[in-house]
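Example with several molecule types.
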Amino acid sequence: MKKIIDLMGNKNIPGMKKLFRIMKLTSFFLLISVVSVLAGKTYSQTKLLSLNFENTSVREVLSKIEDQSEFYFMYSEKIVDVNREVSVNIENQKIEKVLNTLFTGTDVDYTVKDRIIVLTTPDVFDNNAAQVAFQQKTVSGKVTDTDDQPLPGVTVIVKGTTQGTVTNVDGNYSLTNIPEDAILAFSFVGMLTQEVEVGNQTTIDVTMAVDAIGIEEVVAIGYGTQKKVNITGSVDVISAEVLENRQATTVSQLLQGVSPGLTFSAGSPGFAPGAELGIQIRGMGSINGNDSPYILIDGVPGDMNRINPDDIESVSVLKDAAASAIYGARAPYGVILITTKSGKKNQKFSASYSFNLSMASAQNLPKTLDSYTYARAINESGVHGAGGQYYSNDVVDRIIAFQEGNFDVIRSANGFPDDATHFETAPNPINLNQWGFNQYGNANRDWYDEYYGSAFNKKHDLSFQGGTEKASFYFSAGYLDQEGVLNYGTDTYDRFNLQGKTTVEIADWWDVSYQTKFNKTTREFPTMDSQGSYDLIFHYIAITAPNFPKFDGYGNYMLHSKIPMIENGGTDKSEINENWQTLSSELRPVKELTIHSDFSYRLTNQFRSNQELTVYFNNVDHSKSVWGPSRNSNITNYHISNTYWATNHYARYEHSFDNIHNFMLQAGLQFERANNRSLNVRKLDLIVPQVASLETANGDAIANEGLLTWATQGYFGRFNYNYKEKYLLESNVRYDGTSSFRKGKRWGFFPSFSAGWNVYKENFWESSIGNFMNTFKVRGSWGELGNFGNPNNNSFPDILIIPLSSDYVNWIFSPGQGRPTGFAGTPGLINPDLTWESARTLNIGFNTSFFENKLQADFDWFKRTTFDQFGTVEAQPGVIGASLPKANNVTLEGTGWELSLRWNQVLDNGFSYNIGVNVYDNKATIKKYQNPTGTLSDYYEGKEVGEIWGYTVNDLYRTQEELDEYTSRVDLSDLTGLVWNTGDVKYEDITNDDKVDNGTNTVNDHGDLSVIGNSTPRYQYGISVAANYKGFDFSMLWKGVGKRDLWFNGDQNIFWGFRNSVQGSVFENHLDYFRDQEGDAYLGLAEGEANYNLDAYWPRPYFDGQHNNKNRITNTRYLQSGAYARLQNVQLGYTLSKHILSKLNMQKLRFYVSAENLLTFSSLSRGIDPLAVGSGWGTGKTYGAERIISVGINITY
Amino acid sequence: MTMKNLKYLYLLFLTTLFISCEDFIDIQPQDRIGVDNYFRTATDIEKYVIKYYSSFPGHGIGSLPASEGASDNLILATPNLVLNGSRSPNTGSWTSQWSNIRSINILFDKLESVEDDVSLYSQFLGEAYFFRAWFYFNMVSTYGDVPYYASAIALGDEDQLLKPRDPRTYVVDQVLGDLDNAIKHLGLRSSNGNSRLNKETALAFKSRIALFEGSWQKYHAGSDFGTSGADPNKYFQIAVEASEELINGTAYTKGIYSTGNPEKDYYDLFGKDNMSSIDEVLFYRIANKDEGLGHNLQFSLIERPDSKAITWSLVSSFLGQDGNPYDYLALAANIKGNSFLSKIAEDVDPRLKSTIWIPGDVLISSTDQIFDKPFLDLGAEGRSQTGFQVKKFSNPDSEGASAGYGQNSETGRIYFRYAEVLLNYAEALYELNGSLAVPELNSIRERVGMPDFTVIPQSNYGSSLVDYGYTISDELYAIRNERRVELALEGFREDDYRRWAAHKLFQGKRPKGYPFEPSDFPNFSPDLDENGLIDFFQSEMTDGYGFKEDRDYLTSIPQDEITLNENLEQNPGW
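Resulting structure tokens for the full complex:
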């Protein structure tokens, strides 16, 4: 926090600009409150200093004093010669003595007000107004803020001259020799500049208002930076604060809720260790899925999830075409610019260390049933024409006995060995040498409880930064160690980041920077011996019934607990090493011209080893057998190497005609080339699983290689004009070429235009509504961008490729021989004319602030039309025999709005707080699509994306009479040929044609189907609250979705419970199912008529997929709401006061406790996370957002 | 050089960057080639064709016996949708069903570019013809008339895309033509072995298709499923000729597997892992768990029937050991449960005890696990609900028998065996000219020690007589009955009742099980019919199977396809 504040606020001082750039309002408030808190104490009378310097500049000495103490110096280099070299040798002296020594023989005077020391000379400033020695007119006064607090350090300049001064610690100033027609300009960072005509006044007191928009706030935009006030596009800036001290591991997770317009989606692994969320800016842009924003890290495209969130200084989200147009064909769906931290010139050296220890645990787990209840419910589901009981009466008897601790019953089972010690199962009656599983188990386990535990995670971050007059640096290292919450299996993620940045001023017209980043991430998870992907674990947990044994009779893990597969089946370990180097130069050959060049090279190496190890189970006779589905132990090693280089060169010329007409012209070019190589080798028959390598496997090697090079070439330009920062105009153009399309189809031109009007700068404003509405800017933009999709997937559309595989054919020609290897697949259909898809965006918005800038509001309305999108060519008769190729024939239109409100206030007692709310809405509609018949199984013109078509259902058939009456009248044969029973779902005949059907399943003939909901998340919002008081800080961040409908298919057992065979998961919430028969000890939930449950929520369950599915055709009754609100983060911290810190020789020490995902409000069934709804294995079968409680410390020296 | 000059050099460098050409982004594929560069050598063709072998069905979860669930031989946990007339019309598209046809047509389109001499790729070409026949026959069998394409359809070729269906007679003729080419080009089994397509297999397939088509045309004549220009005898003739070629041709490897042990030979044939030296097996799939090609068959037969259960109808079609009909129902009135099973095992055609488990049978040799009674009372997975539990294809001695759940079985899956050809021949010959292929039928019976084939008056069958829904001769009844017994659970029954238009075999009837004996299961009581037979679908299917004879013989063409091509006519009844 401590800075030598140059009171001249001169824009020509480079360090100053950067300082102001990062100075957010909050830190400004903090400074002010520190000043006011510290005022009135007698620090200067007590603090003793020791200094020993030979021939050192005054600047350096002052800086050292600041290091040793809490003193702040305020001075102007124009009046105080700080480059003068001095020698001092002082032991334990008060500050006044030190200053006397330093400035002996100069005319420098000083004023010490506790910790604030203002250096002046009699030329410009006389501390004692009574001692006026000249005849000229003198003007003096006091500058205060809106809370009547004196403002020290305000620059006061006589306009049009270099004459000026700064206010002292009491906010007082005095200027001599002032002509009457002079205009005084008062300026201070973060405050609105004020100009006052002197006239005949001699005392001019000024109250300065906070400038909420931050006049000097500069934000990162494409290929440069821009003053926020002059921006005409839609740009949102996220400061580092929201990313700091958080426990969610990756940047994509951390961005949830902090900016309007972002939509997040979780992949199949959900929130597994190291999880990366998918991000869309302003919703769905492409029906092909590749609509994620273009992500640039310090100007180089990269994966935001591999960098250390602690290295981030700011994140700019460029949303409309005007903001992102300069990226042409890469950025139709917005841009996220991540700027990492840098050192600043003349910045004092500082070192920071942070440590965070967190404990993660799962939340919202389903409530499982005891095994007896479970068995009876499952048995009941089997009797209704669905194949009879699943658990035989004998097994149910054993389940009861086990729960009662009556192990003799189990001991008496056929073949139960005498030496057994565990009683969760008996030998399988059909194969007495094997322990019974599935329908033979009699255990009583809560598998969620068994599998889920907690994990301790650690995060360390260390950084150094600083700068001299000619150079600056930032070095950092971070380490993160994360574990999954499951009790079994290796499920880890760790990340190591190293970053270094240096900038050297080689000449006063030439800066050169060099930056290097090294990221290493390691992810390891169980392969479960090739049984499936990572998310299979969650499917397994869900379908492991409570009666399944964990242990066999001897206490070995049963295979059907799945524990041996997870523990012993091998792991998949991926290690990604990423090395970036960027060399850049900024040349200023003549005034107002800057030439930037950079060259970046990134090497990403991925080493992945996938082992599938043989899993064994234990037999009743103590022997071991290989579990059937288990593979021979094998290993596949992947080496994937991607090199990417890019070079950007651009020149910028800025010129201002008298600060009235301001021009900026920029032109540049970019080249990129990427080379992707992958090689993987698989070998069967590992000799020993402990040493898993290709060398130690006996089988044949099967090798696959992938080679791909792509390149782009682009030219861009920007023209920018403003009239007195009042009327703003900008245009961007880009001309892009890519290797992904054939000659003649590979170049695209992308223009954008935008304009803005800072209405509040008009003269009428101040006098009319300027009192309460402080600022108001309207802006509009139009532009077109291109998209060539992911270059890695989308190459050579003009060549009919024959897919060659070096893998095995699933056939053996002769016994004893292996499978033949190598075969040629079938070429697909192609469309050689494939080219760019384009996005056209119209954006209208305003920025405004009220009540002395305490309230700020930003609003944007947008329409984004993505046309020439890749769609399939017109639907073709199936005899074509292949999936249809893509063509540029789809138009999708997204419209929506974003609103962001922020309230900032500092109370007199030093309590400061801010509240931010952002709301965003978006919907996308298909405007053009090849589906002439309008079949509902595909997109069609006019379709709102996310639409859910379904039948109307109000009720179940509660009685046989009701059922007979309805089914005799209404033909339901289009839904199913199966018999209807009481408790089944009654599909309404809304067309009153005596049948329930889907017509021809087209838009114009959809029978009884109607749009019953929409799965697009609507009204997404984020709420942030932060407060500071006396060293305590509190913050919280909520993220939510206002409206969303979800339909879960009939085989989604976590939602529906009953399924078929062993694929069901009956939990407590599923017990409210329809029952109209008497129960007994073996089936039903209660004996006799007590079993009846005629007004049930759930339909009659079956132990059969087809029967269940007839009740699970998409309908209104079981449509779910995906709306939710989640407390992403809540944090409480305490920062030690400067007073204590100075004794520890520290700049900052903060302790905090923090929690991620502490609360989630959602109406979805337990077990279903509202963001990570499901995986490839189905609804709820993924790693839900875990609750992480953590403690941490931040130290800065 | 001074710093100032550096500036100009740098500016010069930037200028050169602007003068760059498009070569920078003109990049060619590095790891793949276009179709136009393929199909040059015999190896190219082989690599292209062998992938289709994987499309033959496997043996997983007892897929072969389970497939008979679509017939009157077997039931599963719920009534079969086709037999019960409870299918709903197909929605969506049938693109995926045409993908193999398109794929193989690409090969035929590209044959001209092959540079090697045809002698070098004759086998692969034969395979290609075989596969195309295989793919199209599946389409005809499913949909009846289908549009026929001999080359891959190009996008935008509306003449082809919007073509109406070709009559099944036309399509079958093309299929038979492809098979003639396959027979011509494929190598003999003696050189190829019986896990690679061979001449013998192509001949057998030809007899199968021709018999199917001949009987379809004959028995559906006049119905909605008939075809104008039907000429059943043409196809019976082809079936006879193809069979005779195989039967009489000396170059062919074929035979009936027999070691002289009538009690075991028939059973052993289906449970073997290695079938390469069995002459009867013309073509089969080798399973190998080390290669990831194991399956679950033994587990499914021995431990987990998963509600697969043989019907009374199949069991009662086995003749007595003396070659005469056996009165099962009369026996069931007195002897029930385990005793019933043991009794019929003694009394009837030995193939029955190779087909269903009999109490006392060894389930797993390595642990001496004995089958003591049917798995009637177990949960749905472990259960076989009729008491007639599937035994055919099992092998208690195999490793897979004891290994439990998983892909542990290595039992081969037979696609073509010689006995089928003999039965095809016998049926086709009789249909063609009323002749009986007695020596051929006897060679099948001989293996199991049954008396020679004789024609028994249908009146002698008593309660075991099945109703085809129309009158047939005693000879044909006997031939069909022999076929049902010999090929039980091998996946033929569904095609058989369809080509015979014999829905009366099951329509309006419920499949029954064995006579239940309560003392075998003190704790369990299934639904029984008036004869004391297990009546598993009693409450679910009160009126018996609801097969709709004017609809259910063919599958509906998917809705979208008819919308996209108005020239496609929907199948009858849909």
